[in-house]
Amino acid sequence: MHPVLRLLLRRAGMSALVLIGVSVLIFVIARVIPGDPARIALGPNATVEQVANLRDALHLDQPVWRQYGHFIADLARGDLGVSLYTNRPVTTDIAQFLPATLELVFAAAILMIGLGLPLGILSARYRGGIIDNSIRVVALLGVSAPSFVWAVILMLLFAFFLPIFPIAGRLSTDFLIEPVTGFLLVDTLLAGNPAAFGNAVSHIALPAFALALSGIGQAARLTRANMVETYDRPYIEMARSYGFPERRIAGRFAFRPSLIPSLTILGLDFAAMLGNAFLVEAIFAWPGLSRYGVAVILRKDLNAIIGTVLIISATFLIANLIVDLLIAWLNPRIRHGRGTGG
Amino acid sequence: MTPDVTDGAVTGMAGTGDRNGARETGKSIDTLAIRDLRLRFRGYTETTTVLHGISMRVAPEQRVALVGESGSGKTVIARAILGLLQLLPGAIVNGDIDFEGQDLTGLTTRAWRRLRGVRMSMIFQDPTSSLNPVFTIGEQFHEVHRRADPAIRRSVSGDRAAAILEEVSITEPDRVLESYPFQLSGGMNQRVMIAMAMANEPALLIADEPGTALDVTVQDQTLRLMRRLVDSHRTSVLFISHNLGVVREFADRVYVIYQGRIVEEGPSAAIFRDPRHAYTQALMAAAPRITGGGIPDVSEDEPAFLAPREVHPPEPTPTGDG
Ligand SMILES: Nc1ncnc2c1ncn2[C@@H]1O[C@H](COP(=O)(O)OP(=O)(O)OP(=O)(O)O)[C@@H](O)[C@H]1O
Ligand SMILES: [Mg+2]
């Protein structure tokens, strides 16, 4: 079997196991925390009978393992139950809120790769010089504060004191965009509405940058460190002896071998963004899954909690899987089934 | 097989010309002529002098060996010819380096760089670590071909690479071109590196102790292949070696270097028959190890080693292949 295919199958199997584990865990935890979901949902004025009826409908009086059985049976039909908070199917809620979160995380990942790697390359190429030192200071700043701190700082600086960017939300209410993908940056373009696209970009800029900053710093530092090591290798001397311009040596011959060891960590950074996005979303009132998640936890909305956690876990696992495949694709030693397997 | 690309952007002078022309004129322009090359390295407190005025010539199609013990300055000479040493901030280089009649020291960094990989190229000691691990051999050949012909198509480059790989007796060039260096043996990588260095038909090939990282039989085999290749492409060679046996077999002319000075030079037959300088005699007297290929250990620094240079008269017949 092709080594990459084997890797894919193994990782997919692992991911399925992890998802089952997570679902059991969150199922049990959500049920042992104090508070009666039915009572919270129906409010203090509901009668005891109404509460009992709802508890019955939710199978809450059955043993936990039987409740889990119901849950799995529903899940197999693609049904995550109804949210007591929104009174809609949990899947509908997730379909509405997940794209906003993914859009934010993808934008941040693009910034991390698009800025972090080139900064690292520049830094390594001019190592010891003023460009290198400036980049290293900026990168260190980036990794030295968590993203929610950057979110507050950026918001204060560029939305409040210097109102260049909007302070909150995804899109001004002036625009009405038909959701197609749920990604506003894509949907505004599909709608052929450049003004709305510009508006969406200005809304996502600060939260995405806040979310990406530590990743940018991390990517730049890693790339620089690996490239500085690579620069001492004989094949760089050989590239020089072949008269390749320094630019090309930096961007290709020294960068490519240095990228592979950074990839695993960049992949983890990307996955961490999914978690950090929660706080950034809260600060910028970004209508993503985090706001939904916090609201349903406060209401002990069992179905919604489990659905949200499962979807986020699945996204995390898929992201990791994609990163692993990318690494396998970029690293000839894995692609050809030699050396260190992933 | 004539190459469709013989020339980079900046070469000023004619190349090696045709073989008979080079032989008859005899006085044709040297491929390489170094005069009074001096090198110092600036340290924190003092500068150390590494080369004390090196002069040497490599005629067209000639194979010249540079022999000396470790630290005597062989590699720095090679790096100075390529213009790599001059890029180091701590290196102070003086003297003339004429390449195909053109004074390199007068060139801009950029013009000198453009000669590298096109008119002059270098083979390194350890083949496997000198090839980039994340590009296939084919991709690396393509990059090298593009040095001479930036617009060359991948398929054309592949064909040319396969042809030159066959010249170093690689029987399945297409498989090798698709491989990464870690998938090939050291001896195979060595052949690849030789072929790559010759890919753009350089006028000068510098080989810095090629293959000393490999075992002796493989080393011997690849040296034969290199010999054949430079013969058929009429390439001049500056061959740096530790191994006197190999030098004797391979080189037309020998320079012996000791502590940054050339102590003896001449046709290799003459030098091996009649070593005149005390250091050369010591080298020859110390029995060379048959296996290691290392230079015999001449540990004593005798005052006689610092005696002036011995120059053997030029050989009666023009240089040629053996
Ligand atoms: N970048 C540098 N900075 C300072 N000194 C250097 C540098 N490069 C070389 N040297 C010194 O120059 C001298 C000659 O070095 P070189 O590498 O040319 O020796 P070599 O004859 O090639 O030896 P070997 O046979 O071991 O390869 C050595 O003493 C070395 O320490
Ligand atoms: Mg050396």
- What is the overall pLDDT average of chain A? 88
Average pLDDT over all residues of chain B? 84
Q: How much strand of chain B?
A: 15-25%
Span from first to last CA of chain B?
Answer: 22 Å
The CATH C-level name of the domain at 94-288 in chain A is: Mainly Alpha
The profile of the biggest β sheet of chain B is:
7 strands, mixed
The assigned CATH architecture of the domain at 94-288 in chain A is Orthogonal Bundle
The ordered string of helix (H) and strand (E) elements of chain B is HEEEHEEHEHHHHHEHEHEEHHE
CATH superfamily membership of chain B, which one? P-loop containing nucleotide triphosphate hydrolases
**Which residues of chain B sit in consecutive blocks of at least 5 with pLDDT less than 50?**
1-25
Task: Give the helix proportion of chain A (percent range).
Answer: over 70%
SS field, number of helical segments of chain A = 14
Count of discrete structural domains of chain B: 1
**Tertiary shape of chain A:** globular
CATH topology of chain B: Rossmann fold
What overall geometry of chain B do the principal axes of the alpha carbons give?
globular
Order of helices and strands of chain A: HHHHHHHHHHHHHH
Q: What class, by secondary structure content of chain B? A: alpha/beta
